[in-house]
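Table S2 (continued). Query chain:
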Amino acid sequence: MKLAVVTVNYNSTDYLMRCLDSVLARTREIDVAVVVVDNASDDQSFDHVRSAFPNVSFILNRENLGFATGCNQGIRALEADFYLLLNPDCVIQDAALDRSAQFLGSHPDVGVLGCRVNNPDGTLQRACRRRIPRPSVAFYRFTGLSTLFPHSPRFGAYNLGHEDANGIHEVEAVSGSFLMFRRELIETVGYLDETFFMYGEDLDFCYRSGQAGWKIYYYPEAEVTHFKRASSSRRPRESNFHFYNAMRLFYRKHFYAGAGPIEHALVLGGIQTLYLVSRLRLLLSGSRAVGSSG
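Corresponding output:
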């Protein structure tokens, strides 16, 4: 059983060092290969990273090609039974990769697996287990109903607040910060959609996997700590644009054809309104925060 870990880096080199160290130090029972795809980071030289991790492969792009493209480069660079898309600002806890790969290996109907992703304070990052943001689900989330009723199977459906976060269960999508999948998906589903520059590519990949008949599971017996948006917070306006643009792309790709003009106006108009409000907040507050995916 071989696992290929693909990490796309952009101005997160300090986090990347800790990430690589945790992957190599805490993975003992499976054969693991690691490739880092750097999207033209300008934070510091990569020489010391390459010296510190001589067994890690590196692909150094001359320009920022986006997250999805970088992931595809890494996937194509390594042959493996399973692949893991892992953010560079994640730290592996205990034997998370061993356990996750073993779970996939013993469940041949599961195509995609996500683990429990924690904030640095140990609380759950809700985006690590999700429903597909169909228009109704997205409406409950962006009107605040999911916040008011987080444990409601209806209003809190997007982040599955009614499901036990400590229990293994089937979901519709997991987070791209830790997304493990079997090689067969490349043959049946294809690679990540490079139309998504950043954000949304994980939801799209999970949606296509589910449509192709693969099961998607949340597996909390494996855990990572995620220092969220270590790189995107450096360029909040650019990240903010890509976040809301991903919503538009996802809706147009998967739901536009089956909806009417009224729904188009409500959904696309709502996304544009949210984007403009977020831009105004950035201008007024100087905040470095970007719209959250959960």
